[in-house]
Amino acid sequence: MQIIVLGAGAGGGFPQWNCNCPHCRAVRRGSGELTPRTQSSIAISADGERWLLCNASPDIRAQIAATPELQPRHGVRDSGIAEVLLVDAQIDHVSGLLSLREGCPLDVWCTPSVHRDLSTGFPLFPMLGHWQGGLHWRPIELDEAHPETTFRVPSCPGLVFTAVALHSNAPPYSPRRGWPSTGDNLGLFIEDGVSGTSLFYAPGLGEMTPGVHDYLARADCVLVDGTLWHDDELPRLGVGRATGAEMGHLALAGEHGLIRELDALPATTRRILIHINNTNPILDAASAERAVLDGHGIEVAVDGLRLTL
Ligand code: MLT
Ligand code: MN
Ligand code: ZN
């Protein structure tokens, strides 16, 4: 299986358009220790030809421009993006669908909860119905009765996908914000049926549960939530009121932080952080926090990172 990190940043990206913090200022100036990152998305392929877009970022146009694999190759209208899968209905993961409208009809895999938000509060499904057949919903059957479900997608023959319900949060515009239901957020365990290798992808991981821990421990590579260093990072910096726990992102530091959890994985597991918020000190490659990650064998994803598993 092949994976391309299209966007390693969280909502807002890095630098964020309206942020004048020292990091955003420095990356705008082009400081060597800081690398810009677009908003959260990866692409997955079994054959390197057809790609499943996991999350449609508001930066999709720039991401396609930076990724030859996704650009048109055959015929007058074409794309390497064969279908789309959404892990939640957050703006940074879905609003790129608006920019893909010229490619409709487009198959979009998501849970009933995500489909509900994208049919009401952020009505992408009904809206894009006005473009050549619109979005065709491919349900991921994750609900209270089914916290896990295994399925295959046509563009990735040989890959077996398991969606795992995560404790995180519904988007700020959702009626379920603060009271998420099963299916509002998922992690993806993807296994290559030929090579036997596997990836666990979870850009929005609010809480560690025994079930999630088991999937992390089974995967050869984990690509997981690196949004925040401190749970109270936004209030500390005076840029927001919400804590990580409230947003549905488990912070890296602290006694029950994600670094501790990643330490418990088998020594051979490749650990990579993704969905890094512009407030996170690990964005500075020369920071003390990045040295801590190095010490734990944890990598920080950048746009364009390619993995072959
Ligand atoms: C999140 O990951 O919590 C959201 O993308 C935040 C946002 O919508 O800005
Ligand atoms: Mn996000
Ligand atoms: Zn900033």
Which properties best describe this structure?
alpha/beta, binds manganese (II) ion, binds D-malate, 309 residues, globular, 14 strands, Metallo-beta-lactamase, Chain A, 20% helix, single chain
Instruction: Tell me the Rg in angstroms.
Output: 18 Å
| H and E order | EHEEHEHEHHEEEEEHEHHHEHEE
On the 0-100 scale, what is the average pLDDT? Answer: 97
Number of domains: 1
Small molecules in complex = D-malate, manganese (II) ion, zinc ion
CATH architecture title: 4-Layer Sandwich
How would you describe the shape? globular
CATH homologous superfamily descriptor: Ribonuclease Z/Hydroxyacylglutathione hydrolase-like
Detailed description of the structure:
This protein is of the alpha/beta class and 309 residues long. It has one domain (2-303): Metallo-beta-lactamase, Chain A (4-Layer Sandwich). It has helices at 22-29, 60-65, 91-94, 112-117, 124-128, 210-218, 233-237, 244-247, 258-263, 288-295, and strands spanning 2-7, 41-45, 51-54, 81-85, 106-110, 135-139, 148-151, 159-165, 186-192, 198-202, 221-225, 270-274, 298-300, 306-308. The chain has a seven-stranded mixed β-sheet with strand order 6-5-4-3-2-1-14. The longest helix is centred in the last third of the chain and has 9 residues, at 210-218. It is globular. The mean pLDDT is 97. Residues 15-16, 19, 21, 23-24, 278 line the site of zinc ion.
